[in-house]
Amino acid sequence: MTATPVFGITGWKNSGKTQLVTRLVAEFTARNFKVSTVKHAHHNFDIDRPGADSYRHREAGASEVALVSGRRWALMHELRNEDEPALKDILSRLAPCDLILIEGYKREDHPKIEARRTETLDRGPLAPQDPNILAIAADHQLPDESLPVFDLDDISAMADFIQHHLDLKRSRL
User: Fold this and answer.
1) What are the beta bridge partners of residue 136?
2) Vertex 133: Cα angle to 25 and 110 (nearest 5)
3) For site-directed labelling of 151, which of 10, 34, 48, 112 has its Cα 20 to 30 A away?
4) Using CA of residue 133, residue 155, residue 165, residue 90, what is the dihedral sign?
5) From the centroid of its chain, how far is CA 82?
């Protein structure tokens, strides 16, 4: 997939994935790791706004538009009639870093923690069907779980778990 270590956070909609990923990014950054993220969206999304120059470039038919400033840059790629790119293709486009945290991508084969919240109990657990789920992060008790279980707010322990699993010692960059 990529030489950069990857670890995923998966779960049903509203299970706490985004909050968990953002808190893990902050934790690993505080540990001096350079972290990138990939988020999978199941819906149509746009990071641009109607009327902006970059939006007008895309509307005119540009396949890619790079928006660049002195503080950040973004590359927007219009799929038009192309298939959604594979995760491995997205990972290959990222700049070098120490760790890539992936949000979503339930069906991919990278190591993951499953986020579970009380509000999503009716959806059922993902771990029994996915051997790549190595632990659970939950906001409720899981009495009969065979995998390690973390409190959804125990970010430090989950970061330790990920760091140990991936054998991340210190920033490589």
Assistant:
1) 114, 149
2) 65
3) 34
4) positive
5) 23
Strand partners, 55: none
CB atoms under 10 Å from CB of 103, counted, come to 20
Cβ neighbors of 3 (< 8 A, separation 6 or more) are none
pLDDT at 66: 86
Q: What's this model's pTM, rounded to 2 decimal places?
A: 0.88
For CA atoms 40, 141, 157, 5, the dihedral sign is: negative
121 token code pair: 């109990």
Quickly list DSSP for the chain: --SS-EEEEE-STTSSHHHHHHHHHHHHHHTT--EEEEE--SS---SS-TTSHHHHHHHTT-SEEEEE-SS-EEEEE--TTSPPPPHHHHHHHSPP-SEEEEE--TTS-S-EEEEE-GGGGGG--SGGG-TTEEEEEESS--TT--S-EEETT-HHHHHHHHHHHHT--S---
pLDDT digit string, tens, across residues 71-112: 988 888 888 888 888 999 999 999 999 999 999 898 899 999
